[in-house]
Amino acid sequence: MSQAAAPRPAADDRGGSGEAPADLGAMLSAIRSGPQGPEIAAVFDFGGTVVDGFPRPPLYRRALGGGARGLSATLLGSIRNGLTDGEYSRFLQQAAQVLAGRTEDELDELGVQLFRRAVYGHLYPEAWQLIRTHEAAGHTVVLTSSLTRFQVAPAAAALGVRHVLCTEMATSDGLLTGYTAGKTLWRHGKADAVRTFASANGIDLSRSYAYADGVADLPVLALVGHPVAVNPERKLGAMATDNAWPSLAFRPRKAPRPLDYLRTIAGFAALIGGAVFGVLAKSYTGQRRKMADALMAYGTGATLRALGVRVRVTGAEHARGPRPAVFLFNHQSQFDVIIVPNVIGGGVTGIGKKELTRNPLFGPLMRFVGVTFIDRSDTHRARAALAPVVETLRGGLSIAVSPEGTRSYTPEVGPFKKGAFHIAHQAGVPVIPVVIRNAGEISWRNSMIARRGTVDVAILAPIDVRDWDPAAMNEQVETVRQLFLATLLDWPNTGSSDMEHTAPQRD
Length: 507
Description:
The chain is of the alpha/beta class. It is built from 18 helices and 16 strands. Helix content is 42%, strand content 15%.
């Protein structure tokens, strides 16, 4: 997530009116210092504002095929930036064909599958940051869409948004008819739904915010005291300029290109080559730990160079002491196992899920550096596997672990498991938060393909857990999680330094 707005899209595509985009950092600061409380709403349009829409031609052509493929294509392909009247009308026609005769449970499940397969990669991290900042101010966050809940609800759940307004679909005898139930949430229909929600929940629209990208949402923007255009199409951009509305530019997250595949292959080759070189360079010592540290140093450095990934670190001094420690990192991508050891340095091993042992590349390397693998499906075995880790820490070797236990679909930091905190308490060592930003943009959660870019890492001050009560640490663990969230929302701008192995990036 960038604290500043990204470059504007090309003038012949979107936002060609010439208005200057607002600074996201300044807007976040204004929200934090402005009026607080649930009577103020933050209304977010879905397609084009919270998620970058999907391209039309291939998806709409596949939708003509009908069946399950046509259903998926219709649900995905209608998530568009700046949806027009004609495009929305075509969506309703296609929905009548492909939704009819299906159950709501079936479509709810399909919506979750589509989110985890494709939609999550199109979420704007900037939108997540705005949503969380409004929530921190106590505002009532609302996600609106002219589409169906099957398309919108999974994203809302992942973003933690409780209030969703969307077009409802009619049912008969438990099956969808393919037609809408009542008014569609399009143009004034959406504005009416927002107005009704505001009246029912004590919302003061004159002090509320609304974010949208298309001219069809002008009725909603006109309702609130703080309208904001996000990646506006041409007509909305002109209206934003005429009305002096702020305009934000969110950077689309692009799918991997052929060059990214080639660069990723080169990165894996560099990982193997660097790892082998590191082991050989220290083999004369006969000490496995020194060879393991060299493996990580040379392997991760070579990989990041080959991928074109730049790492910017804040608080690097906290990685050097005190040692040993339990380093906690938020988990976004497959490449966190490259980024974290590169930033922390030597004298560290890790804890990973048992499934990683089957990874043909990472599995053998992680075994060599002494990673402890746990079976998350068996709590008893997982606890038994963690018991020797305490002795590892007492022996002077640090541990790196993700307390979330799995990668997140959004920049959100998931619930923390307490195992790492129990280990630190038993060993008498501190925990050190390692907050990662942008790794999910370098490589999407379910992808092994990496793109060029910058990953920010903030290493926070050590936290002493020796006096924590093992039987009642839920609140303290949640405090640490909130520290991760606070850092992601208000990134520290002092003390940053690039890792020495990286080179300046070219556009």
